[in-house]
Amino acid sequence: MFEKVRAEIFGNGLKTEFKVSKEDFTRNRKQRFPILLLFMLNFLKKSLSLEIENFTSLLKVGPNAKFTKSAFVQARKKVRPEVFDRLSQVLLNEFYTDNEPAIKLWKGFRLLAVDGTRITLPITAELKEIYGETKNQSSTVLVQARCSVIYDVLNKYVLDGALEPLKRGERDLALSHLGHCNSDDLMIYDRGYPSYDFIYQHINRDFDYLMRAKTSFSGLVKDFEESRKKSLVVSIYPGKNAKLSDKEYTKNSPIKVRLIRIDLGKGNVEILMTSLLDSNVHPTSQFKELYFKRWGVETFYDELKNKLRIEHFSGYSNQSILQDFKAALFVSNVQTLIVSELEEDLKESNRDKKYDYKVNTNISYGLLKDRVVTLFLDKKPTGIDIVEELKTLYKSHLVPIRTNRKSERNPDKYRSRIKPKITKNQKDGV
């Protein structure tokens, strides 16, 4: 299952491409390039000294082969964070090209949700310089980065992730993810994304989309909402004050979009905007459930912050921050691939039960600690299949899926504090 990733880690090509300088990793050190990568993948949330003791014990190396915290800090400076992007791409290519029957689609589309959030960083001079400063409600100075991911909501893989200064807008980051898409994808966006240029960029690249639109987007949207129609195809144009001198279109360039009204109950309405214009192929009734699938990316951010504890970084430099961030995205994809292998077993076991059950995500990450190292070692202990061991452990930690549960959403809950808050009923898994 992970042979290609393992071969990539221990091959010379990865080291050659992702070392910072051509002189790096030319001598035979205790921290060889692949061993350094495995250490950084192993959920470094405790003191580095403790993590090193645990890691070297796991590898069963002698006292002369152990390395110090200072040696690790110096060695990680030689590794470009993008190495974990490459490992994720190898994993994703293996899934999407060699596993076609298992790929979940919606009417032939791969459903990709894009969303952003803020990640609180350590307060250092370097990070202040790169990401700037923000303040919360109590005027406490924070350093925060804008995080953006493109996420396959049906198959639960992260295709791409970015961590950038807050001054870089969500639309700009969303467009940077499009290089990971193809013409069979349907992108889903929240109401902060729509603009004429943003929609044009999708149409120009032959990408379909579904976006929630504010009524203030244009007079057309406001009139549509007041008309109480369920669906309407209209033409939109650039805004009157839009700067067009560097654009490929003019103020008279129309884009056809379909507006859809969704009644949420209690007088609440949301307006969706999509490139799926044919109501015979895509009836209006399907869009409420379709747009709700976007919630998968919100669930992923919960995993990233509260289960993978991304804001507990293992270093203070920007390079360390990016290494931890990209390593977490890769580990998330590893966990998804193992859990997906259990899908048929879970369907069978759920057949006669009141609730459907799923793998406890928090526990699953905790069980992956240390085992992720053994999983990718080129030489494994005899007689041990780590993937099968993890599957057995995962199946012993299931939780019921309770549908139709609702809670009030507070989108600013991560802005008013420095450290992540773990709720009382959720203990740390890693």
Automatic annotation (TrEMBL):
Domain of life the protein comes from: Bacteria
Pfam families (alphabetical): DDE_Tnp_1 (PF01609)
GO biological process, one term: DNA transposition
Biased composition (Basic and acidic residues): 405-415
Domain annotation Transposase IS4-like: ranges: 108-333
InterPro entries per the UniProt record, alphabetical: RNaseH-like_sf (IPR012337), Transpos_IS4 (IPR047952), Transposase_11 (IPR002559)
GO molecular function: DNA binding; transposase activity
Residues covered by region (Disordered): 404-430
Protein's recorded name: IS4 family transposase
Species annotation: Subsaximicrobium wynnwilliamsii
